[in-house]
Amino acid sequence: MIGRHAVGGRIDPPYFPTKTEPHFVGRAIEIPAKANGNRVITDAFTMSGELEFYAISIRSCSQDATDYWNLSVGGRTIAKTIFCKSYEEGLYFQVAHPVKPDHEILFEYHTSNGTGKTVELLFHFLTDPGLDLILTGETNLGVYPDPPPELPETEQPPGLPPGGALQLPVAWEPFSSVAEAVIWTSALGIRANFAGKISAANYVTEALALLLNTCGGFAEMIQKHKLTISIQNAKGANGYFNPGTGEVVISNRYDFSNAEVITQAEYDAGQKSSPHKLRTIIHELGHWLHYHNVGAKTFYQYSSLDPDNYGAKTILSNAEASYIANNLSNYATKWFPIELMPEAFTAKITGIPIDAKIWEWYQQYGGFECEGW
């Protein structure tokens, strides 16, 4: 008898699986509450053996119709921009996708709503009998601002520092102990945690003295609004501003003693807007000033303009992005207009001339202006 085989038929792989042993992998993603703004949460993993991937189940408590998810295997897109977040019985692919041990399975969850939510996933696999599969992976929640605090109506703004209004100019010289620096900042009404580092204490206090003595209006801002400065883990960045807590963070790994060399290199590369040694802390204080200058609601509205924060997508045209990069800094094009504000502020306060068009953007989006600017 002559055997027959239907080449490329519906009973051939990948339309019909070749493996027989079911293997299910569950993943739960707890997405914390953050400020409103575009966020991308990823869950990526690999498996130690060969698989066939034929379905995924998903359940989310999100009630936001704009949330969506993507799924890829080994760099190949399987599902894109799926708004349905309830496939508890499984979304079947109609094919059994082969998965090699080095193929990364990547799930992306996109949300612009700051509420916390849970996403539960179940991956439907087939494998060969007797395999003891090992999963290697992680969930990346990203780094995003905390939500603004809900202040009770009776809460009063921060009071004046001891002795009443600030007396300007302030005197500053390098401190010999962290305790002295803490007393100095406390007298300004600023909470500071220098993590026991005298180099950090002198770096931060020198920047505060510079702003108090050269930026009219800065003293009034720190008396009207809470400011906390902390030296701590900055999650891979040199620093960041947390609008929800009013906290400015500088990385505890930042090389304060070589700040001048670092900032000059960043400036020469066109990455940052100023070579001044204090630019890192001034930049983060520029965020703080912008936030309080426009108010929380407007700040979060501006934060949500950019489609993916520090990613490749932007509301800027190619010509606009090139203009900002060439006339201010490349970093100012990120999360537009959020990063343009402190980049322009840092340049201005440290004596770097500001292009007229850059300044127009700065004013359009409510950048803080020192008296006389």
Side-by-side strand order of the widest sheet: 5-4-7-2-9
* Share of helical residues: 25-40%
Mean pLDDT: 89
Supply the number of helical segments. Answer: 9
Total DSSP E strands:
13
Q: What form results from the Cα inertia axes?
A: elongated
CATH architecture type of the largest domain? 3-Layer(aba) Sandwich
Oligomer: single chain
Distance between the termini: 94 Å
Structural class: alpha+beta
Residue share in β-strands = 25-35%
CATH topology of the largest domain: Collagenase (Catalytic Domain)
Q: Any idea how many domains?
A: 2
Query: The biggest beta sheet, please?
Result: 5 strands, antiparallel
Whole-angstrom Rg: 26 Å
Low-confidence stretches: 151-160
Q: State the name of the first-level CATH class of the largest domain.
A: Alpha Beta
Helix and strand pattern: EEEEEEEEEHEHHEEEHHHHHH
Describe the protein.
- By secondary structure, the chain is α+β, with helices and mostly antiparallel strands.
- It folds into 2 domains: 21-140, Jelly Rolls (Sandwich), CATH 2.60.120; 178-364, Collagenase (Catalytic Domain), CATH 3.40.390.
- It has helices at residues 178-187, 198-214, 218-224, 259-268, 279-294, 296-303, 318-327, 340-349, 356-364, and strands at 21-31, 39-47, 51-60, 68-73, 76-82, 86-99, 105-111, 117-127, 135-140, 191-193, 228-232, 239-242, 247-251.
- The strands form 3 sheets. The chain has a 5-stranded antiparallel β-sheet with strand order 5-4-7-2-9, with no helix packed on it. A 4-stranded antiparallel β-sheet has the order 1-8-3-6, with no helix packed on it.
- Helix 1 packs parallel to helix 2 and helix 5 crosses helix 8.
- The N and C termini lie far apart (94 Å).
- The model is unreliable at 151-160 (pLDDT under 50).
